[in-house]
């Protein structure tokens, strides 16, 4: 029904993106796809032999092939050849062995990324177009295939090394552990402070994450008309605030982040929303949210993908710093993933819906299984890069309570959620 609004369902080999691919409010579509992905994977795992399914799970080198495609910028080259390009010519342009490149692209085409219209002639399709170097999804994919893979390759060693095995210190995260032999230390955020290229890639990846998870549907779900002032705490370059400012020109937005990030943020806003910069609608202020509080008494404090970057102690500190800035009318909105158990046992003991997000119908796994896998993968990414974690609703409520906040409402964005907290008036 969502596609019918735009005419018809696009073919996977369509050479151009579909309007829904970049739409903000795709909540209904996201929920249908979640059901579809979860049910298909569970059905396949039920009907195929276990050895078949487990080998599919571990034997995937798609990421390595995507990394080659991104690094060699294959999509941008193919974009100039709408009828496709023979791998012989493509290989010459990127200086990679022709036969090896053909095999890499064929595996990707088998997964639906690139088309092989004639033998050895490859062209772009809807999936491969998302890897254009001018877009942001390639940066997100690059983060997984570079930093993620590097960290994952030492996960077991990190979990069993007496120096790191029980540590929650971000400096001991597997990614930093992997860099130890190069004499690099600190946290990933500290590392990025001195590396503008890494920082740019990271913040462009954050923009992509919003479109991947469809979380910008919060722009139409939340009553922004009732809000006048908002602080985006740990704003990055404005993955959330920039579309918010464009959609709601009456809002005054303060973006808080580290000074080096704010320089990049200004550049991004200057090229993507110059009218907002001119309008005085936006301030960029440096803040170390581990040690300082944002400005007091704002209507909304927004934390998008912040808490999951930090272990409990630091996450509580950040929340407490925001809590101290809040007035009785203020709301803290925490956007991110809310994990669920893969078991129904806990859920059956509580009121349906109390877990905050929808449950999948039986006999599906209650958390939609593969349909929600990205949030459990993200939990791994947080462990790998920051020694941190995604949390379930009880974890978030507990952190909030320690920081003097109580949960007021849950906004379900299909994949991610927004937890709305207010000051806990019962604690003094
Ligand atoms: C995962 S990103 C999220 C960015 C943005 N909220 C978004 O959703 O795109 C985490 C952000 O926290 C910022 N950050 C990390 N440590 C910080 C600190 N101590 N004080 C302020 N910001 C910090 C990073 O620079 C980065 O922009």
Question: Summary?
Answer:
This protein is α/β, with parallel strands linked by helices.
Give the terminus-to-terminus CA distance. Answer: 51 Å
Strand content: 5-15%
What is the C-alpha radius of gyration, as a whole number of Å? 22 Å
Stretches with pLDDT under 50, minimum 5 residues: 349-353
Portion in helices: 40-55%
Average pLDDT rating: 93
Count helical runs: 20
Bound molecules: S-adenosylmethionine
The description of the largest β-sheet is: 7 strands, mixed
- Principal-axes shape call: globular
Q: Order of strands across the widest beta sheet? A: 6-5-4-7-8-12-11
Helix/sheet category: alpha/beta
Number of beta strands: 12
Task: Give an overview of the whole structure.
Helix content is 46%, strand content 13%. The protein has 20 helices and twelve strands. The strands form three sheets. The chain has a seven-stranded mixed beta sheet. Strands 1-3-2 form a three-stranded antiparallel beta sheet. It has a two-stranded parallel ribbon with strand order 9-10. It is globular, with a radius of gyration of 22 Å. The structure holds S-adenosylmethionine. S-adenosylmethionine (SAM) binds next to loops.
